[in-house]
Each structure stands twice: as structure tokens, then as C-alpha cells.
Inverse folding.
């Protein structure tokens, strides 16, 4: 199906045949999941490597790809060898032969687990800091990257005469 050029590459890539069995698994997918290509080949990729809560929606996306309807930027949880899960953003592409007959699906992914973790951490920290900021007796304001005010604490109003 897919041949790697010069090593494992950066994008996790997997391929499956029409019956759902693994046909391709690159070095980046090895690194992310801990499963080798040898361990993944011939396995039902959805049943073996997708979280229980994601299986139905993943089957739907892959099923549509097997009908020629490709899907971009689909988020899914992939199980690692040690039982953890990694969040991947996947593009599911229909694989065809030279006569346009559908052979399977190719998934090219981005590992967004670290970005997802940072987002959760940032949201958590923001939630923890909000009560502190709201109860402060100091004029606090926020601006975005363009210098536009996006937060104005109530204590700033009496000092600046602006609400």
C-alpha cells in the first residue's frame, strides 16, 4: 500500500483492506502506539486499536471511505501497547487501484495528544485562576495579541472611570 521514504517519517500512517484488516503501519505509528507493524498487520484495526467509545464513529468514517467518501480531520483515540490512549487527528482516504476499484482505506494522522493535554491543562489553570482574579482588589485588564481589551476587572472601573 504505502512505502515509507527515508525512515519512519513524522505522520502516523496506517492502511486497512476492505475487510478492516491492517495492511500498512509506519514507524511513527510504532513509536506512538508501541505496537510494531508486525503486531498490527492482519489485525482488525478498529477492534484492536480504537477505544471502545470511539469504535462506532470510527467504523462509520472508515465505512464511508470504503464507499469513496473521504473524511478530513477526524479525531480518534488509539490504544497504546501499555493500555494508554493517544489522540490522533486522522484523514481517511479511499485507496483505489489503477482501474479506480476500491481496495481499502489509508489513514494519515497527526498526533495531537500533547496539544490536547496542553489545552486541558490551560483550561484547568484558567478555571483555577479565575476566582483569584475576580476577587482581587487591583485593576486588572487583559488584551489580545492585537492589543484589543478582552478582559476588564470591575476594580479597574473606579480608577479609570471606564466600565
Amino acid at each position: 500500500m504505502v512505502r515509507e521514504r527515508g525512515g519512519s517519517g513524522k505522520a502516523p500512517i496506517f492502511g486497512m483492506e476492505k475487510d478492516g484488516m491492517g495492511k500498512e503501519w509506519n514507524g511513527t505509528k510504532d513509536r506512538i502506539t508501541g505496537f510494531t507493524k508486525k503486531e498490527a498487520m492482519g489485525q482488525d484495526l478498529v477492534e484492536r486499536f480504537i477505544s471502545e467509545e470511539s469504535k462506532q464513529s470510527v467504523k462509520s468514517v472508515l465505512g464511508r471511505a470504503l464507499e469513496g467518501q473521504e473524511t478530513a480531520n477526524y479525531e480518534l483515540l488509539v490504544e497504546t501497547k501499555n493500555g494508554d490512549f493517544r489522540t490522533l487527528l486522522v484523514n481517511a482516504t479511499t485507496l483505489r487501484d489503477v482501474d479506480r476499484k476500491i481496495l481499502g482505506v489509508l489513514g494519515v494522522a497527526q498526533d495531537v495528544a500533547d496539544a490536547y493535554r496542553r489545552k486541558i491543562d490551560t483550561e484547568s489553570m484558567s478555571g483555577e485562576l479565575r476566582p483569584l482574579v475576580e476577587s482581587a482588589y487591583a485593576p486588572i485588564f487583559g488584551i489580545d495579541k492585537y492589543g484589543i481589551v478582552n478582559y476588564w476587572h470591575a476594580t479597574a472601573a473606579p480608577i479609570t472611570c471606564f466600565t
Observations:
- The chain has six helices and seven strands.
- The CA atoms of residues 46 and 59 lie 7 Å apart.
- The beta strands are 13-17, 22-25, 71-79, 85-96, 102-111, 141-143, 149-152.
